[in-house]
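Side project, low priority. Logging it here so it doesn't get lost.
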Amino acid sequence: MQFPCGMPGALRLRNLHPLIDGDGACSLVYDVERAAVFEVPEELKLYVAPALETGNPDEELVGWLASADLLTAESSWACLLAAGHGADEAHGWIDQPEAAAAIEAVDMVWKRGRGFSRIKLHLDWVGTFPTDGVFEKVVQHARRRAAISGQDVSFELVLDPEQVTVDVGRRLAAQAVCVRLRCGECDPLARLGTSHENRPWLFAEPAVKLLLSPGTLLLLTVQCILDGPARLIELWRWAKTIGVQSLDAIRLEHPGAGDHPGLGSPAAWLRDYRQDLHAIYEETCAELEAGRSPVEFQPLIRIVRRLMRSGAAAAMAGIAGSYGERGGQAEAGIGRRFAGVESLDPRLLPELMWKRLEEPAESEAPILPCQACWARQVCSHSGYLASALGKEDPRAPSRERCGYWSAEVEMAVRLRHRLDQIDAMQVLRFLEDAPGWQEPRPPRDHCEASGTEPS
């Protein structure tokens, strides 16, 4: 929750979100405006959150806030960040089934990607592997465009597990592309009574083993939809055991108690997810501290990267720009919509926001929930970001979903802070070598391919 408290004189308190530990203390404070995290001094941990909530900090707390530049004379939007999916990376999606149309789409991506040093193409033919050499033609054409323009290009091919065969594996290895293997998307009713009922990722295990076999594929992301009682920590442990380098997960919200007895409460689902995220956070840090490379859990790592970019951007002059003006206008709209709520308990603001979203006045447009969310600048699902997740998880914000997404952001903020205490070279190697960041170097003959296309 953010606390935009006013302060005496010309100073104001930045919008802050305290991160509460399991014992009720607050060890970290997240600066919403600059997407930065600050460690709270030991002597302030027990009362910093209540003091921020009431807007009545004592002299010692005011001194720390000023020293951390959390008490500032800047305007509210002086440090608004335009933290997108990638600071210097353009994204394009290719899903045309015919080669001519797909190549035309690649050319369009290049026109829109002028000025970016990197372009990432997401190849998704509804999870199938295309026929007639369309895959190879698209990859080779894109690499020729990249060689001409001097840009880097990377690829991520989306496949369903049943599409993976020995021949497909061979062709993927020849082109050296990343693969996103989607599992857990089959009807949950089809899994009832099977040994994999609550562990849908096991259905994809044969395909994963084939893609990870020697000489087949170097970089693989397994994406799994978690529904019902499926636990994230079990998926994580399976990924570590089988050798998956990169893992993505989409946690579905509770369907409601009406027609689904015995599934547990929504609060229990969210609590389990938070616990699983914390376990992944601890294991990731332990692996790095031991000099090993952990599995890249993308829901956390992509936010960590965004936080790192935001931290660098916050030091730049003139960051507000036109985006800051748009953001300021959007926030001013919130002020008009919620005129007079500044004196209310800040904990009521999200509830008010959701009520107004669900019951908008006839003369007013609905409010985008992200405008009132503390995580809006780094959340992968935020309306403030041009995120590539729009194709992976197109669900709109809702009261239930945002609880899971907020938990991911909070744990990523903690992870970002913890990484500063681990060997910098080890962290750098992990973040740069993880599949979500790089992909295999293509064979030289593919970079210099002639007009001859594979059949």
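Brief comment: The mean pLDDT is 78.
Revisit when time allows.
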